[in-house]
């Protein structure tokens, strides 16, 4: 179950912020707080596909890739609606578990889980990596993480609806703020920020220049094209899965997830291999990225 859900979770976390579009509703970006509030308003108004308007694109190629991711995210939302219709009991159980976890002060969203894991890892480094977990804590953390992924799969935008007020900011400069989750930096030690662009609007900024991430991000038109092809593979899986769910081919959410892994693994691996080879070859070229 984990393999398929992990793929979709990664795609959704990136793609949720990326499809451009126009809207009759005025979503303000005059301050960091207004941009965050606009994200919540978009979801509440059924305009989740407009979320990418709040994310900064470094260049036209990046915007094109983000648009492709956005189309996939739109299809993911359609799949989620079908899942909720077909498997109401399983999705209701997920919601109940999330509600009980929230009452205990536990993070129920995938973003919250990632932020929490980052704080734990940072704490361990500060203690020279000495373990401090109580018995069974690691298994409990993994179960919470898997539940968060599954909930994302069934409801891609629940973390925005259910966690209003937990995402805040702290000014770094006049034109830059750090994103905080429950008062702590998001995704430590990487961190995430919002910047004020030349148009006077505040945008979420993806951590593309962070070590580890920067080596994977595309930098040339050819790399962006291949990355787009990889996203297209995932998009087709989402579309086909929705059709299978709608036609009653799967008896449970777990079956859907298992099928996702089966459909995605080989084509995604082959495309990723081609992308990695291209990056390696271009890096060997003088002046290559």
Quick description:
The protein is α+β, with helices and mostly antiparallel strands and 289 residues long. It has one domain (2-284). It has helices spanning 2-15, 32-44, 60-86, 88-103, 110-126, 137-154, 158-162, 221-246, 253-284; strands spanning 167-173, 176-181, 184-185, 193-196, 202-205.
- Output the number of helix runs: 9
End-to-end C-alpha gap: 37 Å
Q: Which value, in Å, is the CA radius of gyration?
A: 19 Å
The total beta strand count reads: 5
The number of distinct structural domains comes to: 1
Order of helices and strands: HHHHHHHEEEEEHH
Largest β sheet strand count, sense and barrel closure: 5 strands, antiparallel
Give the fraction of residues assigned to helices: 55-70%
Could you list the spans in which at least 5 consecutive residues all have pLDDT below 50? Answer: 1-23, 117-127
The chain-level structural class is alpha+beta
Name the overall outline.
globular
Chain-averaged pLDDT: 75
Strand % is 5-15%
Structure description:
The chain has 289 residues and is of the alpha+beta class. It has one domain (2-284). The chain has helices at residues 2-15, 32-44, 60-86, 88-103, 110-126, 137-154, 158-162, 221-246, 253-284; strands at 167-173, 176-181, 184-185, 193-196, 202-205. A hairpin with a 5-residue loop joins strand 4 and strand 5. Helix 1 crosses helix 3, helix 3 (60-86) packs parallel to helix 8 (221-246) and helix 8 (221-246) packs antiparallel against helix 9 (253-284). The model is unreliable at 1-23 and 117-127 (pLDDT under 50).
